[in-house]
UniProtKB/TrEMBL annotation:
The chain holds residues 1 to 699 of 1169 of the full protein. Residues 2-58 form the 4Fe-4S Mo/W bis-MGD-type domain. Its cofactor is FAD; [4Fe-4S] cluster; Mo-bis(molybdopterin guanine dinucleotide). One of its GO terms (biological process) is cellular respiration. This is 4Fe-4S Mo/W bis-MGD-type domain-containing protein. The lineage of its organism: Bacteria, Pseudomonadati, Bacteroidota, Chitinophagia, Chitinophagales. GO terms for cellular component: membrane. Keywords: 4Fe-4S, FAD, Flavoprotein, Iron, Iron-sulfur, Metal-binding, Molybdenum, Nitrate assimilation, Oxidoreductase. GO terms for molecular function: 4 iron, 4 sulfur cluster binding; metal ion binding; molybdopterin cofactor binding; oxidoreductase activity.
Amino acid sequence: MPSSFKTTCCYCGVGCGIVVHKDRQGRLTVEGDKDHPVNKGMLCSKGMNLHYTVMDTSDRLLYPEMRYSRNMPRQRVSWDQALERTAAVFSRIIEKHGPDAVAFYASGQCLTEEYYVVNKLIKGFIGSNNIDTNSRLCMSSAVAAYKMSLGEDAVPGTYDDIEQADCIFVAGANPAWCHPVLWRRIEAAKAANPKLRIIVSDPRITQSCAMADLHLQLHPGTDIVLHHAIGRLLIEQGKTDAAFIRQHTEGFAKYRDMVMQRSIAEAAIVCGIPETQLYEAAALIGESKGFMTMWTMGLNQSVVGVHKNLSLINLHLITGRIGKPGCGPFSLTGQPNAMGGREVGGLSNLLPAHRVLDNPAHRKEVQAFWGGRELSAKPGLTATQMFEAMNDGRLKAIWIMCSNPLVSLPDARFMEAALKKAKFVVVQEISNKPETLQYADVILPAAAWTEKEGTMTNAERRISYLKKINDAPGEALPDAEIICRFAQKMGYNGFDYTHPSEIYNEHCRLTAGTNIDISGLDYSRLREKRSIQWPYKAGKGTARLFEDHRFYTASGKAAIHSFDDQNNSEQTDGNFPLVLTTGRIRDQWHTMSKTGKVSKLKQHIASAFLEIHPEDARERGIRQNDIVEIFNGRGKVRVKAQLCTTIKQGVVFLPMHWGKILNSDLNRANNLTNNLVDPISKQPDLKFAAVQVVRFEKP
Ligand code: SF4
């Protein structure tokens, strides 16, 4: 019988609702869910083509595989054989070197239930906090900034604020390509309200700039200078909210003194934009009633990512534009469930329900609830630290779930060398394409989207239910089931769940009394409602936080932080005079293991390229479509040059999606990036590397 099912898109953090139609032959097609509050029927090119990624099983991993030494080929084995050997190797390493000699590296694409069980396993039973995810590359600077300023990792607003805003500042983001459905909502809001003003800050003229009333084409890395200068002008022009500052914030006097230290003229020079644009930006923000900011990797992926975030959030705190309709800082999430992962504590410094490791009471509560061993207070290794620890031998075994770190992590050749040194590598994956697989001692085939059920949380704190629609091919299993079977092989209790609902309900109970309390919710209610926004109280979700202007800090007041505008990124010099920035293209997702299968999605842009300003190209004798080599001390990339005036002179851009093609890694942008990280969030500086570019001559 043909049938239709409602579920949620598994790509970006917008979290669009999707209706999947299944015909008599089991073939799937998709359309946007008109009843879904997020997308109201719209889908972007990636979402529209999702069914192809599930229907084409030609690249799927079907059976567990294993090898006893790196020189031997892997062989098909049973689930019991694969998990028993893995349990034996993990146990041996833990016994000999301690629990911190093993680690799990997961993904913002995992479902909440999957995150929950792997976090419970390593923290509650193995006894290490070595779990981190590719969300470290995406959101960790925003998370730290929210905690420092608002007292909690909590996005204050809701997408419905878009239609009530009259000024939206998009900082270091290109939502027209990377969060397209959200951008269409902004386009529609602007069409309905001609007074809505859009400001975009970005070193490139992107598709998002087409609708901007003001584009601030700043030098890479100068965002704090920009935000401080706007803050100074808002103060000087009397556009701050004195009553809000007095009653609901702390730290304003210090902030005011700090932003006065750099003149507006000087700030304009540092940012590389006309001074008049700073006045214009301050006027648009100062005169608005509903002021929203939206940002992604341009702020987060930085060695000063937390300060960039805080400097933007400060603009809301000094103008009192937070916790009100059409107002608030709004970090856009790159991945579909980065937020759900944090809800269950799936990062190396977190515990479930946003509890923290360094609080002994929190550790005790979680231990008592799980009934496992004493929780370690020692922070676990973060994403890049895991690979550094493999390189120097501290970390012996790594289990990689649903992620392709050899394409997505910075300084990819270092990461690859580190993975080679690991004693034991487990890769849990759906596809046979990711580069990481060649280093796997054990491969565990996982179920994909529509082949399992569970929940995810999007960027506006909306928890959505995802339905199982078809069976996984071969012997592939849902990720949560794989982890639970392994935990049982390790001899641990508390992993005998018979359905994802039992995991989710356990997570709900563990949130009781926390700021993200969903203890009144359970899986069946979520399945019935399809989505709710946390916290869930008195039978209702919460669309907007801080409407009472009480923040989650100890004093109840939001903290305005002060810091200088220094950026400690890699320096350019005579050898490497250009700044490389990396990013996404419209129709590809992450490292292309799913979108790369869909030929329609290659029609937009089929191969990697370098954007370079015509002046920089002329100096180097480079013409349109020449093959160029981009290099620095870490590695090189060889792609076609695309000359364009949409990029700032002195800056070049590479898309981050491509990895190895026909055994050549010369398309991989992360050959060139460095593994400097923000000292607070540990998020890598993926948007800033010093490089040189030359025309490539065949030897
Ligand atoms: Fe999926 Fe994001 Fe596109 Fe929506 S905007 S369809 S969530 S990729």
